[in-house]
Amino acid sequence: MALAGSPRKYFGVIKNMADEWSNINRLALNRAIKSLYQSRLIEERVNDNGSTTIVLSDEGKRKALTFNIEAMQVKKPGPWDGKWRMVLFDIPNNKRKERDAVRSTLKRIGFQVYQKSAFIFPYDCKNEVEYVAEFFRARPYIRLLEVASLDDELKFKKDFGLV
After folding, report:
1. DSSP string spanning 80-115?
2. Model pTM above 0.70
């Protein structure tokens, strides 16, 4: 803007910046909505007056979870299905608070430490892990695996009371 040369060009640059900024935000919004449509979490409903309303689909309603992060527990749905759920995370050092919060939350809700950044649980916990990842803004760094067997699973079976 210092190179604009005249006040008229200076204000023209500012106006163009504002227009471009709103386009960027619009593009991000459109991308996010498209992603939600593709995941079938939202539906579009056309109203009588011609306007459009975006609502949660049945799948979206199931996904729209509300947890109290302080009181969260993973429900144990009866007999164990023989599969382990493993949460792996690689949260960067500049997000140390988030990493520590994820680690302590997983421990508190019943996960066992498998390795420093790997935790294990015997029951379905996808919704809870997704919520923790979103709550601590760590989704890009967290993975949930379903594992059929472990070479050292006897220890974890004992820890979880499965034997």
Report:
1. --S-EEEEEE---GGGHHHHHHHHHHHHHTT-EEEE
2. no
